Amino acid sequence: MQPIIQIQGVGKTYASGFTALKSVHLDIQRGEIFALLGPNGAGKTTLISIICGLVNASSGRVLADGVDIVDDYRQARRLIGLVPQELTTDAFESVWDTVSFSRGLFGKPADPAYIEKILRQLSLWDKRHSKMLALSGGMKRRVMIAKALSHEPRILFLDEPTAGVDVELRRDMWEMVRGLRDNGVTVILTTHYIEEAEEMADRIGVISRGELILVEEKDTLMQQLGQKQLHLILQTPLATLPEALGQYNLSLSEDGGRLTYTFDAHQETSGIAELLRVLSTEGIDLKDLQSQQSSLEEIFVSLVHQPEQNQ
Amino acid sequence: MNLNGIRAIYLFEMNRTRRTLMQSVISPVLSTSLYFIVFGTAIGSRMGEIDGISYGAFIIPGLLMLSLLSESISNASFGIFFPKFSGTIYEVLSAPVSPFEIVAGYVGAAATKSLIIGALILLTARVFVDYSIAHPVWMLAFLLLTALTFSLFGFIIGVWANDFQQLQVIPLMVITPLTFLGGAFYSINMLPEPWHTLTLFNPVVYLINGFRWAFYGVADVHMGLSLGMTLLFLLICLTAVWWIFRTGYRIKP
């Protein structure tokens, strides 16, 4: 099936000479939740802004449902909803008016029943007559989502959707995004909360210094790149690491009571069985064993710091 | 054509006017009425006629033009500057609306507000000064053309301005002096040389005189020249707006 978004060699160099994106290629599949991870200034927002028509690309092109976003901008933009990072709303407008305005702007005829439905879904119905300036940050964020959904888009961009949002609202939003995906909406979110991507995404792209350095299924990424650690709690603490264990990737805790063995989860043999045999030969008795998978955050940090180390 | 999009922008802007009725409508009508009271009724009664027109009636086209220019510019410039300033412009730029539709929404609303204010000023003037309109169709045509042209000019200023000070610079430092010196309160034929010739380089002279001709059938410059200059300025503004959207100047990096 044709990807719903095709990004083909998109680059962006601003008038100041700053290159925010370097020839990015990426396909977003229909109905998936795609998380774009990257540190601040990596180019996440620039990429989203180009797809949504807020920034002109310096090179390359983007297709939305097979339609060029520049040549056929009307058709392309009708498919797309955007929730920007900043809470930018007209302070004096009411919730109802601002959401209705968005629907009209995107060329849709007025549909009070639909607006009511999304306001209720986002727990905004009781606030429909409130002015934007009277709302809390979390409520404003919900209104931004309602505005983006007002024209029934098939693709939704969420730029840092839970930045500055409390834990409860964050979990509500995750639920809402999953609900949208279940209704066939493709969701692309940028975040620097690894927890968010880990919790929600089907696929993850990591962007750093304007380059897409990795795109992978989240589960595969976790499985393939995740380092595993085996913690061995010793019956009797060791003063130093015995010579026979020198060939293993082992570290001894300060109190000598714990050995930590780090290994790649994707390798065919972990070396655990052999290590346990050597420990037994050396007369080191174990009290307990714990294994731990590295988090997406650790994978992310190692990925974005790789180029730095290579330089 | 995204008619719903144009309608959304237009109604959004008109709602803003409704919310700020005192500032947007009442205030300019009141301040122009003060001119009619002071110059039309109080001082005007002691002044002689100009071109066979009482002084109070003579200044109506110029004062109307002064309000029309300043209101068109300020309405349209604020209309596009504020979304740019607050960031809400993202929604317009990401919507399936063409540059023409964006301009139609913002400039259409600004021109409508100016026309409403113009109509209210004309009605108010009637209370203080007796006047007649010799060519009502031409008067309406000049009114519409001026409101449209200067709303477009205001749109350009709103896009260009980076802060509130820049937003005010052109209306206050350029348009108001040009209107005062463009024959709003006097006939430019009363000026000695070289001021008379110099004044002919002031574009507002042609706007005021076209309007005055439509009111009283007399003017300092030919009506055809006035119409030509107004249309030329409209063309310049349309070209500038086209260039803004083609290059993304200050709205789309």
UniProtKB/TrEMBL annotation, chain A:
UniProt KW ATP-binding keyword: yes
Provenance organism: Marinobacterium marinum
Gene Ontology molecular function: ATP binding; ATP hydrolysis activity
InterPro entries listed in its UniProt record: AAA+_ATPase (IPR003593), ABC_transporter-like_ATP-bd (IPR003439), ABC_transporter-like_CS (IPR017871), ABC_transporter_ATP-binding (IPR050763), P-loop_NTPase (IPR027417)
Entry protein name: ABC transporter ATP-binding protein
Lineage: Bacteria, Pseudomonadati, Pseudomonadota, Gammaproteobacteria, Oceanospirillales
Domain ABC transporter: 5-234
Keywords: ATP-binding, Nucleotide-binding, Transport
TrEMBL record, chain B:
Record key words, sorted: Cell membrane, Membrane, Transmembrane, Transmembrane helix, Transport
ABC transmembrane type-2 domain sequence ranges: 19-248
This protein's record includes keyword DNA damage: no
InterPro entries registered for this protein in UniProt: ABC-2_transport_permease, ABC2_TM, ABC2_TM_bact-type, ABC_2_transport
Subcellular location field: Cell inner membrane; Membrane
UniProt keyword Transcription regulation, yes or no: no
Segments passing through the bilayer: 20-43, 55-82, 102-125, 137-161, 167-188, 200-219, 225-245
A Pfam family of this chain: ABC2_membrane
GO CC terms of this entry: ATP-binding cassette (ABC) transporter complex
Membrane topology of this protein: Multi-pass membrane protein
GO molecular function, one term: ABC-type transporter activity
Family membership: Belongs to the ABC-2 integral membrane protein family.
Name listed for the protein in its UniProt record: Transport permease protein
Species in which this protein is naturally found: Marinobacterium marinum
